[in-house]
Amino acid sequence: MKWLYFPDWLPENVSTFGKDVDNLFVLIYWITSIVFVAVMAVLIAFIIKYRFQAGRKAEYIEGSTTLEIAWTAATTVIVFGLAMLSLPQWSRIKYPSKFPSNPGAVVRVSAKQFNWDMIYPGPDGELGTTDDLELENQLHVPVNKVVHIQLTSEDVIHSFFVPQLRLKQDALPGRSINMWFEATKPGTYEIPCAELCGFGHSGMLGYLTVHSDEDYAGWIRERWAE
């Protein structure tokens, strides 16, 4: 039944919560596909049944209140069921009170036209002090460690998106939004902006580098050599 999941259709998942996101996506995909096929089948049947025939006069057909209530109720039940099914996973991903504690890294990400500013706390472990490190479009994190991100915007709405992490969050001016992830595979992954933010939107691209523990420790030593 591998074809029911079609993992090859999606970007590689390197996130601990990515499988939950994929499962919800696949479920919605099959529900909408089944509904689409059913609607098209009915449409084709009606086209054939009520095609033009010489001598046939048009008839006025009144709507069915019962049918309207039925399909509205069915749609409501499906949407509500999907919401209840995804709530445990979604709350774990989105609600700060349920974020994993003791992160391996904390980074403040500030979006602006048209770059990502990554701000790392220095040896004192505090953001907003003189030993902070600021890099442009370069996010470095350790593998298999929880990473907490403080996301904000300096101008307009942007959207922080890493497809391989199944992570997407709008960055809003004047607000700091917390998010987290745990990458399971070293490598370099793109961070495009997924919200139209101006004429340079298409060129707003950062990179997430996931290091092994040894490489990340070396990167830390290099950046704070002094």
Overview of this structure, please?
- The chain has 226 residues and is an alpha+beta fold.
- The chain folds into two domains: 2-96, Helix Hairpins (Orthogonal Bundle); 105-223, Sandwich (Immunoglobulin-like).
- Helices cover 32% and strands 27% of the residues.
- It contains three helices and ten strands; from the N terminus they run ααββββββββββα.
- The protein has helices at residues 18-49, 65-94, 213-223; strands at 105-112, 115-120, 133-136, 138-142, 146-153, 158-162, 167-171, 177-182, 187-192, 205-211.
- Strands 3-2-1-5-8 form a five-stranded mixed sheet, with no helix packed on it. Strands 4-10-9 form a three-stranded mixed sheet. The chain has a two-stranded antiparallel ribbon with strand order 6-7.
- β1 (105-112) and β2 (115-120) form a beta hairpin.
- The model has no long low-confidence stretch (mean pLDDT 90).
| Poorly predicted spans | none
Estimate percent helicity. 25-40%
**What is the residue-averaged pLDDT?**
90
Strand ordering within the main sheet: 3-2-1-5-8
**CATH homologous superfamily of the largest domain?**
Cupredoxins -  blue copper proteins
SS field, number of helical segments: 3
